[in-house]
Amino acid sequence: xxxxxxxxxxxxxxxxxxxxxxxxxxxxxxxxxxxxxxxxxxxxxxxxxxxxxxxxxxxxxxxxxxxxxxxxxxxxxxxxxxxxxxxxxxxxxxxxxxxxxxxxxxxxxxxxxxxxxxxxxxxxxxxxxxxxxxxxxxxxxxxxxxxxxxxxxxxxxxxxxxxxxxxxxxxxxxxxxxxxxxxxxxxxxxxxxxxxxxxxxxxxxxxxxxxxxxxxxxxxxxxxxxxxxxxxxxxxxxxxxxxxxxxxxxxxxxxxxxxxxxxxxxxxxxxxxxxxxxxxxxxxxxxxxxxxx
Length: 293
Ligand code: BG6
Known about the structure:
GO terms for molecular function: carbohydrate binding; glucose-6-phosphate 1-epimerase activity. Substrate binds at residues 56, 74, 79. By secondary structure, the chain is mainly β. The chain contains two helices and 20 strands.
């Protein structure tokens, strides 16, 4: 057993040099690099790395709520809290064929959390890096309360892109979405693939388990493969909103796109003792190789 006292971030490495950095602040993945050492996640140059503020970039965890309805703070408190390391995590499952480097983090509610959200839970977040450099986040949220509770959840992943105008998402065409720019009104996607020319703040509903983000300029495709996460968050603040965020550069919207799996439209209800598991794996490949995934 290692002595983790005083550790505030963990670096996972693959044998061929890919890496991921995980911070105990928010249980947030703050860096993911490929074998060439290129950073694949966006973090703002103006990010504030001080709890209780969540870091602007990487993979913030939105829990127990996505958005800002009710008494909880926007996107819930999990991303603002200091998580702990589980020194004796359960082993990887035997059918997990690749060699993987992984870490398990835990979050349990504090007295203060219980005052604004009176439900006892245990949140286990496993971050794993496979030999091929793909990054997986597995969340297991367990009700350790005497009563049922409901929650919504999202991985608010900031992907790094070369130029947002050259990016498109495949896998969400023809689906319904809730538009946060129009009081969560429901629309149906009409286009062939999703492209960006203004602010986008949407939750796509009943999505397939594989979604791809194609960056033409960098000739890179991010493939997101997920399970237990029916919805997909898509967010780019564009010019005006960027200027209103203190922890985000005025032009940085061009280099980022938030996309990942979520459970929002139909919150999860957990009975006492029950758990909900979700999975989201990201991998990159050259454009045009999607069918190989
Ligand atoms: C989006 C929300 O998913 O996250 C937006 O729908 C919000 O309304 C954005 O601006 C970023 O949220 P935050 O709390 O990290 O600034």
